[in-house]
């Protein structure tokens, strides 16, 4: 290629300053080398670019044309460099995060707050859904990241935490520290989601092993609606600690630990495959990991080897 950035930068500086000597001083290049570059450029283009006079140099008509284009190109290159460095320091762009509906209220807000504080140019969108919907969203690249169940996610998903499951009832229904066997819990008047949900699948598997029927009195989609029904005395449910942590602490609901066996589910951070993450996605991923670890330390769940990207 006849034109390159170095030649254009040298030519532009000489034309702007009207002097080989001054341009050589500003560029830090020996004047003979600078003259050689311009001579080569003129030979390659087949035109005279600069008029040499005892008082300096001036651009010819062809030189003026090249100068206008060269200045625009060099400005664009400089702007690209600044923008790239700015992106490295302050990543920007859209990031879509899907979160399992039962933990979205407790995990989503801290992630949004941390992202807004640390990376204000990142536009984070959070959606909640069941594990099947999240899997489809990851597969179709609707979500850049998804906090979902291990059994539904890809094998390469990052383990986040193990969430213990509890029987959840209205305030005062279960005594502090009360435990329930799985067999007894299956006989409670249960409010459960439909069959596509992970907890429902887990309970049906336990019922099959025990040879018991699940006493489902109503089906409700959505954690908020389910908890409202429980507070109204319409039944009990089975949920993870993260979904009812604040309600239990504020005595709006009561819980009983499930035993023989204890039930828990592992949640992971899933991502599309063969789709390199942007810097913004990587930073949001790190925020999710750090928030999960912090909430785990507060007792919401038991973390399973959460590490930030920087420590990997």
From TrEMBL:
<dbReference type="InterPro" id="IPR005119">
    <property type="entry name" value="LysR_subst-bd"/>
</dbReference>
<dbReference type="Pfam" id="PF03466">
    <property type="entry name" value="LysR_substrate"/>
</dbReference>
<keyword id="KW-0804">Transcription</keyword>
<dbReference type="InterPro" id="IPR000847">
    <property type="entry name" value="LysR_HTH_N"/>
</dbReference>
<dbReference type="InterPro" id="IPR036388">
    <property type="entry name" value="WH-like_DNA-bd_sf"/>
</dbReference>
<dbReference type="GO" id="GO:2000142">
    <property type="term" value="P:regulation of DNA-templated transcription initiation"/>
</dbReference>
<protein>
    <recommendedName>
        <fullName>HTH-type transcriptional regulator TtuA</fullName>
    </recommendedName>
</protein>
<keyword id="KW-0010">Activator</keyword>
<comment type="similarity">
    <text>Belongs to the LysR transcriptional regulatory family.</text>
</comment>
<dbReference type="Pfam" id="PF00126">
    <property type="entry name" value="HTH_1"/>
</dbReference>
<dbReference type="GO" id="GO:0003677">
    <property type="term" value="F:DNA binding"/>
</dbReference>
<keyword id="KW-0805">Transcription regulation</keyword>
<comment type="function">
    <text>Transcriptional regulator of the ttuABCDE tartrate utilization operon.</text>
</comment>
<dbReference type="InterPro" id="IPR036390">
    <property type="entry name" value="WH_DNA-bd_sf"/>
</dbReference>
<keyword id="KW-0238">DNA-binding</keyword>
<dbReference type="GO" id="GO:0003700">
    <property type="term" value="F:DNA-binding transcription factor activity"/>
</dbReference>
<feature type="domain" description="HTH lysR-type">
    <location>
        <begin position="1"/>
        <end position="60"/>
    </location>
</feature>
């Amino acid at each position: 290629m006849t034109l390159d950035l170095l030649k254009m930068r040298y030519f532009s500086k000489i034309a702007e300053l009207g002097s080989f000597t001054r341009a050589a001083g500003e560029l830090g290049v020996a004047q003979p080398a600078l003259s050689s570059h311009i001579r080569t450029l003129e030979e390659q283009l087949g035109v005279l670019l600069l008029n040499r006079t005892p008082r300096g140099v001036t651009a010819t008509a062809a030189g003026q044309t090249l100068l206008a284009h060269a200045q625009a190109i060099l400005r664009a290159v400089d702007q690209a460099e600044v923008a790239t460095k700015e992106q490295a320091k302050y990543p920007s762009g859209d990031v879509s995060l899907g979160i399992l509906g039962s933990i979205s209220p407790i995990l989503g807000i801290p992630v949004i707050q941390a992202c807004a504080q640390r990376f204000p140019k990142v536009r984070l969108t959070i959606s909640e859904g069941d594990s099947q919907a999240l899997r489809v969203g990851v597969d179709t690249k609707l979500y850049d990241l998804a906090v979902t169940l291990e059994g539904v996610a890809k094998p390469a998903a990052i383990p986040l935490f193990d969430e213990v499951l509890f029987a959840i009832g209205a305030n005062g229904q279960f005594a502090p520290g009360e435990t329930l066997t799985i067999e007894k819990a299956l006989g409670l008047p249960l409010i459960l989601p439909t069959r596509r949900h992970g907890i429902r699948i887990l309970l049906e598997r336990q019922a099959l092993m025990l040879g018991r029927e699940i006493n489902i009195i109503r089906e409700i989609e959505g954690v908020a609606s389910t908890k409202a029904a429980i507070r109204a005395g319409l039944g009990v449910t089975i949920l993870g600690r993260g979904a009812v942590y604040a309600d239990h602490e504020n005595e709006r609901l009561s819980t009983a630990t499930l035993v023989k066996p204890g039930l828990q589910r592992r949640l992971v951070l899933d991502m599309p495959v063969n789709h390199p993450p942007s810097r913004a996605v990587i930073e949001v991923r790190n925020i999710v990991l750090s928030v999960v670890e912090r909430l785990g330390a507060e007792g919401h769940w038991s973390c399973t080897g959460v590490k930030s990207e920087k420590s990997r």
